[in-house]
Amino acid sequence: MRQNLSYFASLLKAPKGDVDRVLQEVGLGAQAAQLVDSLSGGQATRVSLAVALIGSPELIVLDEPTVGLDPVLRAELWTLFRRLADRGVTLIVSSHVMDEAVRCDRLLLMREGRIIADTTPSALLADTDTTDAEAAFLALIERDRAAGAGSTRRARREAQERHEEAEG
């Protein structure tokens, strides 16, 4: 794994100690000599994160970073994500797991390619009068559907009125 990370570090012209730093940061220092193919799924996820950390980026985009991982590793990764954020790294996390989404400082919730909320976790719960993020998201979807149905009915009515006016 060290060779793989060294390759990426050379591409990015990262500082000499970066590979060791990221291996320690993701908790894989002891496995540094292992081949990537021999790693568990959770370890492979951490190697991917290590690659993303090379060069100390200011922005990291994570797509479903903890899907399929055991609860202990999920918690460890979220602790690492929080440490990165506390150091000033901006993390953009794409997730369908709402209990993980509320670990973020800010939420941008989307449905069918449209933004239905741009909020904080606490404001989301307060705005929807719910106690958990999944219920809040479902409440937003229902609210969005109701608003959409109203605008669809209104659009149909306006189209019908225009048609009737045109006919005379």
TrEMBL record:
One of its GO terms (molecular function) is ATP hydrolysis activity. Residues 147-168 are annotated as: Disordered. Keywords: ATP-binding, Nucleotide-binding. The keyword ATP-binding applies. InterPro entries: ABC_transporter-like_ATP-bd, P-loop_NTPase. This is Putative ABC transporter ATP-binding protein YbhF. It holds the Pfam family ABC_tran. Residues 14-66 form the ABC transporter domain.
